[in-house]
Design brief:
2 domains; 17 strands; about 375 residues
Length: about 375
């Protein structure tokens, strides 16, 4: 399977945090091709399990995405909305959106985020970013009753009306689309399952966990990490890359197309990040290093301390323009993330990680 096709398929199904059902079904179908068993827990995490060894390894990537939610419909039919997750409000005004009124892929209305045009704004207003509270979604109706007849209700999720495509011309490496954070990691996880060819290394039980509700507080990883109690956990997420206005020193020099990013810092277990680097070098997988002095803000943050603590690592995918309707990533990076996951899993049984916890007694 091509990673591009997996990613495109997953992104066609919306997954605003708390409304991940449509994308969940697609992930289940992919997992069923390669895993010995597939389960969904009470919060909506999809867990694909491979092997029956004594040591469990959890690979985690979240499939929920940031979006919006209908809060109120005014008398003129304009939708008042709130963000779900951390939006950059500078990029919201003027975008086209889908207001989801049902559970099918065609159950949406097209709308546009509107506000007072600059021509009509006071001079001081023009110098400020339009706040979300001053924006409305226009779906082309003239009253609340019309909107309600179309199925719009408080609580309906909303996503950008934007699709996955290649940046520039032809079959280039760079991809543009909404909410790569973090469904692109799940696409790499599915590719890694294919590379493992349905076999877990001897002595290991592999849990590929597509987590939910990361965007509002790492909730899915907290639940799945507690229930699975893995011996070793590797989270996969996106990280900021050099972009216009983003200096290299601000993001540690991370660039698109130069490979997966291996995280280093207190949130992670040193022998594991050293193993991933060794594997990458031996297998010819390009990689980058990122120093994270404290909280990573990813599933790794909760997995490190769940149920008494876990050997923890983080592989990141470079991303430009994160949390906007048009993020940019590298297809080669996704493919190399899948390779790094696969080769690290294969290297775990013979690594020093199994001796990482030691007990000393008085002699």
């Amino acid at each position: 399977m091509e990673v591009y096709e997996i990613l495109k398929d997953l992104m066609e199904a919306p997954a605003v945090t708390g409304f991940e059902d449509q994308r969940r079904q697609r992930i289940i179908e992919y997992y069923k091709r390669f895993c010995d068993s597939v389960s969904v827990d009470v919060i909506g995490n999809v867990i694909g399990t491979l092997g029956d060894g004594d040591r469990s390894v959890m690979i985690a990537g979240h499939y929920d995405q940031i979006g919006f939610m209908v809060r109120y419909i005014d008398d003129k039919g304009y939708i008042h909305f709130s963000p779900v997750g951390g939006w950059d409000q500078r990029v919201v005004y003027g975008i086209r959106v889908k207001v989801w009124i049902g559970d099918g892929l065609d159950d949406y209305l097209i709308g546009v985020v509107g506000a007072k045009p600059a021509h009509l704004a006071e001079p001081k207003e023009r110098e400020k970013v339009v706040e979300l509270k001053d924006m409305r979604i226009d779906i082309g109706v003239g009253s609340r009753e019309e909107a309600e007849k179309l199925g719009v209700k408080p609580g309906c999720p909303i996503t950008p009306d934007s699709t996955l495509t290649r940046l520039g011309k032809g079959d280039g490496d760079l991809l543009v689309g909404p909410a790569f954070d973090d469904v692109c990691a799940v696409a790499s996880m599915i590719k890694a399952l294919e590379l493992l060819d349905g076999e877990a290394p001897e002595g290991l039980k592999i849990h590929m966990v597509a987590t939910v509700q990361e965007e509002i507080g790492l909730r899915g990883a907290t639940v799945s990490g507690y229930n699975l109690k893995p011996w070793c956990a590797i989270a996969c997420d996106v990280t900021h890359a050099v972009a216009p206005g983003v200096e290299a020193e601000r993001v540690g020099g991370i660039e698109l197309g130069k490979g997966p990013v291996i995280a280093i810092g207190a949130n992670f277990t040193r022998p594991l990040w050293e193993l991933m680097m060794k594997v990458a070098e031996e297998r010819g997988i390009p990689y980058q290093r990122e120093g994270i002095p404290g909280r990573s803000g990813t599933d790794a943050w909760t997995l490190q301390v769940v149920r008494g603590g876990t050997i923890t690592g983080l592989i990141s995918i470079p991303n430009r323009y994160m949390h906007t309707p048009n993020e940019v990533i590298s297809l080669n990076d996704l493919e190399n993330v899948a390779r790094l996951m696969t080769e690290t899993i294969k290297a775990l049984p013979d690594s020093d990680l199994k001796h990482i916890v030691e007990v000393y007694r008085r002699s």
